[in-house]
Amino acid sequence: MKTTTINIKTTPEVKAGAQQVARELGFSLSSLINAYLRDLTRTKKVSFELPEIPNEATLQALKEAEEEPTSPTFTSASEAIDWLHNNDME
């Protein structure tokens, strides 16, 4: 099988961490990257999982959303419109 080389730039920490995880799973980093590239070619989709821990910007947005006043529930459109007219949200 012919092969070619792909050079990528990453931090030494990311490379070392990825190599360690690959070893723990019983793979080489090269074989995992090859599998990912084959999947990308086959599906034409980029797929990876994002961390479940929200980043600082998301945490701030969640905090602000919790502090924002919310509107009450309404039984009719006219009731909602009346509430909007009587409660300046700016």
From TrEMBL:
Region (Disordered): 65-90
InterPro entries for this protein: Arc_rbn_hlx_hlx, RelB/DinJ
Top-level taxon in the UniProt lineage: Bacteria
Record organism: candidate division WWE3 bacterium
Name by which UniProt lists this protein: Type II toxin-antitoxin system RelB/DinJ family antitoxin
Pfam families assigned to the protein according to its UniProt record, in alphabetical order: RelB (PF04221)
Family, similarity comment: Belongs to the RelB/DinJ antitoxin family.
Keywords, alphabetical: Toxin-antitoxin system
Gene Ontology BP, a term: regulation of DNA-templated transcription
UniProt keyword Cytoplasm present: no
